[in-house]
Amino acid sequence: MSFARNTGDGGGGAQMLPPPPPRAPLATLDPRTRILGALALMVLSFFVATPVGALIAALFVIALLALGRQRIGRFLLTVLPIIVPLALVASLNLIYTRTGPVIWSWWVFSVTQGGLETSLTYGFRVGLIVCYGAILLATTPAGELAAALSILLSPLRHLGAPVEEWAFVLSLALRFVPTLGQEFQAVREAQASRGGPIARGTPMQRIRSLAALVVPILAAALRHAERLSLALDSRGWESGAPRTRWRPLRLTRADACAFGALILYAVLIIALGSLP
Amino acid sequence: MVQRGGRVPLGRLAAPHFEGDEIARLEGVGYSFDGAVSWSLSDVTLSLSGRERVCVMGANGSGKSTLALVLSGLRAPDVGDVRLMGRACFVDGAPEGAAYAEARRNTGLVFQDPGDQIVAGVVADDVAFGPENLALPAREIRLRVARELDRVGAIPLAWKGTTELSGGQTQRVAIASAMAMEPALMVFDEASAFLDVRAREALRRLAGRLQGVCAQVWVSHDVEDAVSADRLIVLEDGRVAFDGAPGGLLSDAARLSSLGLEPPFWLRLDRALREAGWPLPSTASEADLVRALAARLSPLCAKVPQSAGTACAPSARRSVFEASGLGFSYATGEALHDVRVRVGEGELVCVVGATGSGKTTLMRLLAGLVAPGAGSLAFKDIDLSTARGRRASSGRIGFVMQQPERQLFATTVAEDVAFGPTNLGLPEDEVVRRVEGALRRLGISELAERSPFELSGGQRRLVALAGVAALEPEAWILDEPLAGLDAKARDAVRALIDEQLDRGCAVVVVTHDMGQAALADRVIALEDGCVVLEGAPAEVFAHAGELEAMGLGLPKALGFAHALGELGVCVGRPLTFEALVGALEEARGA
User: Fold this and answer.
1) CB-based burial, A176-206: b 16+ in 10 Å, e otherwise
2) What is the CA radius of gyration of chain A?
């Protein structure tokens, strides 16, 4: 066949792909395991109710970060902007929950022991849930996420839902987010260097300067969409058509170990939570 | 019957792999974007067969991209007959959906913006995407992924994220992904227009490697792309103006110019020397001309002054930009480190460097769009490191980023050009005067009432430049202003830059075109965020080895002189066409 000849090294025949670079232990798990595991951990965080339970949960998160080869400092920088506002909401319990003895009061405010415990518990659980989600996203590229979701949600296909297409569109959308972000910045800077967009003038002028940002971005999004549809077509993608996977998802012994560890953790947390 | 041309309905049918010889045959094809008012293609008749490598050239707006779309089965014409992959796709004014689907299945496409074609997050997965859609067994897909990544020299990139790649790498991955479908025809639509010198050369080598594997159509306006093609098709106003072996046309400078193409450097030199009365044998390539000249000139080194350029005296002109110790970091790392720049009034400074060397960051800093991370940066008497200073500079520094035509937004050209002056709060009659002046300067007054979205790429670039010219800025920052333009639009941009320099503007241009850099007052070469070479062009281009190691070339004239030098004829270090002709004349007299 003509295609096999005339290759880069002139030799033809079997070129080999190098093996994929080693990944963090957590990332070698099947993405389905990672998604299901994260969901199970999120549910389990509602059973964390005692200081010992909290300690175990915190140690488990640290173990996950280590297995995911995540740097703790950088990880905190990404989750804190999400956790802090949620923790503030949880701390409203300080004011509204009034059970147990009053431990601190000032003017019309007072904090009860029950309020303190409740807000600490809720704040901690919310923090755990955010951490699990962040670890999942940090160790799972969009393509793997989409592939795993399309399998996990495949029962919905019997209800007529185009699950594969949803997952594929999701992964494409995620892929183009950074591109559109860069373009938005370019347009904003270009118009700024022409003295716009202006925050003064008549409403008509303001609308016009808004158009200066929106029209090029829309044009760019349409251009991407059109090119992408041509590319998908020329590469034979068809909604609903059967396709193969060159790297099929496989559950391995590591996944079995992961589920074992998860069950152990669940037993521990639930047992500690149900202690008097 | 004339049917409105346009989009072919997409959708794949299980189509066989095309093994025949007749790739495409167009007869009397016409294509109009506006319902037969103006024709993007008219009466195009040509056929493509076997595995030939065809280069399609023409000025901006001559219809070459439209021809590529018709050949790849993505657009049906308004009139004419189209046969693709041996099947009638468009006959008697009606498209044949099944035949079109089969043609597209056998055609690979690569666009100017390869990023739009990448669908997966990992390189190898992207190459596998097409074969997966063909429902091939995993083993076969693995073979194809390895084979195609190897063909484009991207095996080491196999497991990289597709967003981490440079423009040239993305282009190669897009080609591998298209080739994994085993197409009978590959169509490259201006695939090299925005690549740097090294990536462009890699792409040309790749074209040679595809020879004999499948038919290739390269749409380009760089004559260098046509040199090694089997066949050259030149379009002019939608008509085929030339169709044949490239050799004949590429040695006819007058004919090339009349078709709106820039003759290659050696051909212009050949012509200039003949006009100056040099008795030269007929030449067909640069190597021919070098040999002919070497034979004419004595092998002794001619006595030519070694430095043809002016020495880099510290400019006495009033400073417009003054930066020292300039640094900038992104979250991903340091982009600029300890950069010193000084640009005076009426001074042209060219910034050169490979992709990722920090050129764009330097431009954004000079344009006052971002605050420097370290060091000082002043524009005239304004401190650009403060937010107040950057606000005060607004409208006084004209910034033209890559492909500025993408920022057009208004319903008419005149309105778009008026955006800047209006924002400056100028009175209406002054705005009108500036808009008219800017359009006139760029030679596009007749476009004032047209919509920017219906213009050709080159015209749109000129409109975007007019939008900045209407600000009447005191300094210009331009990022690759000539990339992707045809000869006529290039001349218009060059004329604008010259005029702004005469007005006393400081002009900073980022370019991959060393010929353009040779004309600058000073050249700054960046590598990994640091200034590695700086000075008059003559000084910078004396470091040929270092420039090559950075992936940068030399001005054509200097490269030609080096080639003569290898045959024992020294003509010094001419940087420009005129300097080379002068040096040759002197050597001949000696």
Assistant:
1) beebeeebeebbbbbbbbbbbbbeeeeeeee
2) 26
Write the pLDDT tens digit of every residue in A137-155: 888 888 888 889 888 988 8
Cβ pair B443, B470 in contact under 8 A:
no
With beta carbons less than 8 A apart as the criterion, state whether B452 and B463 touch: yes
Residues in A closer than 8 angstroms to B404, CB to CB, are: 190
Domain ranges of chain A: 24-169, 176-234
Q: Is B133 in Cβ contact with A235 (below 8 Å)?
A: yes
- The residue type of A155 is P
In chain A, DSSP finds a helix count (H) and a strand count (E) of: 10, 2
B174-188 pLDDT, tens digit per residue, is 999 999 999 999 999
**How far is A159 from chain B, CA to nearest CA, in Å?**
24
Nearest chain B alpha carbon to A3: B213
| Chain B residues within an 8 Å CB radius of A183 | 406
CA dist., res. A221 & res. A180, Å (int)? 7
Which ranges of B232-386 would DSSP assign to H, the alpha helix?
246-250, 253-258, 265-275, 286-296, 359-366
Instruction: Calculate the CA B491 to chain-centre distance.
Output: 14
3-state secondary structure A96-157: HCCCCCEEEEECCEEEEHHHHHHHHHHHHHHHHHHHHHHHHHHHCCHHHHHHHHHHHCHHHH
Task: With CB atoms and an 8 Å threshold, state whether B401 touches A189.
Answer: yes
Q: Phi-psi bin for A16: left (phi > 0), alpha (psi -120 to 50), beta?
A: beta
Q: What is the pLDDT of residues B424-459, one digit of tens each?
A: 889 999 999 999 999 999 999 999 999 998 888 888
Q: What angle do CA B377, B383, B388 make, to 5 degrees?
A: 130
Q: Give A210 to chain B, closest Cα distance, Å.
A: 10
- What DSSP letter does each residue of B16-79 carry, written as one string? PPP--SEEEEEEEEEE-SSSSSS-SEEEEEEEEETT-EEEEEESTTSSHHHHHHHHTTSEE-SE
The first and second tokens of residue B576, run together, are 């420009």
CA distances from A103 to A95, B3, B100 (A): 12, 84, 79
Q: How many whole angstroms separate alpha carbon B522 and alpha carbon B347?
A: 8
Considering the entire predicted model, what is its pTM?
0.82
The bridge status of strand B53-58 relative to strand A109-112 is unpaired
Determine whether the interchain pair B404/A16 forms a contact, defined as Cβ–Cβ distance below 8 Å.
no
